[in-house]
Design a protein that fits this description.
21 strands; single chain; 32% helix; Rossmann fold; 2 domains; alpha/beta; 19% strand; nine-stranded mixed β-sheet; 463 residues
Amino acid sequence: MVILTGYIMGESYGLLGPQLAATIIQEHSPYDCIVAAVTREDDKKLLKQYLADFFGREKPLIAFSYLGGREDLYRFAKELKDEGALTILAGPQSDLDYLGEDAWQDHPHRFQGLSEFFSVACHGPAEQILPFLKVSSGKNRQYSAGMLWRNKKGAFFQKSRSPWNPVFLKKVLWNNLYRVGENDFCPHKITTAQVLWHIGCPYAASITPWEIDYPSFLATGGKKTVKIPLRGCSFCDVGADKGFFGALNSETLLHQIRGLPEKEDGRKIPFELINENALSGLYPLLQSIISKKIPISQINLTLRADWFIRSEARLRKVLKIAKDMEIRILLASVGFESFDSTILANLHKGVDTVVNLKAIRLMREMKHEFPEQWGYSKSEGAVHGFIHPTPWDTYETEMNNRKIILLYGLSLDILPEYSVPLIIHHGSALGNWVREIETRETIQFKREGTIIGWWQAGDRFVL
C-alpha cells in the first residue's frame, strides 16, 4: 500500500499523520506501506511508473492524505481509479471533501465533492482502515468504521468513525517517507519531526455563537453580520473537523519522543510538540525526558498568543532547565494573523492587537535573557501566521496594520516574507458564512476545488 501526500519542494520535514498511518498499517496488517511525498513539480508519469513497479502484479491500493486542495493530486487519483486502482481519500475533512459542499445538489456552483475521484473515503483515526484491509474484496470492505462510499445509483453511505485509541499512537516509523527520484522512489531524510500531545485544539473544544461581518466590498452603508456557530478560529477547518479530543498521557508522549530519528551527535532531531498550550506541561515533560535519559536537541512550539503570555513564569522555568540540558526551545509559530482588531474579531482569534503585541514583546525579552536557549524569529526558522488579504480589508484596517508593522518593526523578525490570503475551506465555519451571504444576496462566489474564492473578480492575487 502507498499513502500519497502533498509536499513542498526542497523541504525535509516529516509528516506525522501519513507516516503514523503507514506505521499502523505496516505493524498491524499484512500490507507493506510507504508514504510518497509529491510536490507540484514532480513528474506524474514518473510517479505512475514507480507506483506500477512498487505494486507489480498486485492491485494498486493507494490512499491520499493531507492534499491541501491540490487539484493535480485529485486528478491523478481519478486517473489511477479509472485504470483499476483502489483509491482512498483520508486525512482531515476527508468526509466532507468526499461528500461535497453542503446542499450542492440544489446549488450546482458549489463544490460537488470527490466521490468521482476516489473509490472510498476514510475519516478519523488511521487504525479504522485495518478491518477494511483484512477483507480481500467485495462490498463488505466498506462497512468498517469511518468509511464513506457512493453506490452506482449515486447514493452516499457513511459509517460513524471510531474514537481515538492511544495504543496506536505510541510508535511512528520515520524512515517510511519517500520522494520521486530519478529512477525510483528514494528514501527522504527528514530533519524535523512532530510529536502528538494534543488531539485537536483546546480553543475548539466548545461551540461559540459568533457574528461575522459581511465582506467590505458588499457594504451598503449599514453594517451587516452573519451569526454562525464556531469551533475555534472561524477559518480553521481542522478545528471544525476534530474539535478537541484531549491530551495523550506522558507514557505515550515519551514513547514517541524516544522513537524519533537521531542526528549525527546522537541527539534526537528537532521536533514540534503538537499542543497549542504546551507551556502548561512542558517543564514536567522535560524533567521526565531527563529521568528517562532521552537525548534531545530542540523542541519547536506552536502557541496561541494569549496562552503564551499567561505562561510567562512557566516559560522562564522551562528556559532555565533547557540551559542545564543544553537544548533549544524554538517558538516556531504563533498565529498572529493580523494586527487589526476588527479582522482578528472576524477571524475569531480570541485576541486583539494589544495581546498580539504583548506576546511579541515577551518573545523579544526572552531572547535577551536566554539568547542560546530561546528562538522566535524568522531568521531562526520561525514562521508566524499573517493572513492578508481578507474579505474585511478596508482603508482603515490597512492603515492599522501598516502602522503597527512599522512602529514595532515587525518586518525585521516577526512577519514572514509573504502573507497568506484568507483560505476558506468549504467545510470550515466561514464556508457557512459564505453560503448564508450567497442566499441572502442572491450572489455566487467562485469555487476552486475544495476552496471558496471569496475575492472579487480582478483581484491581483491567487492561491
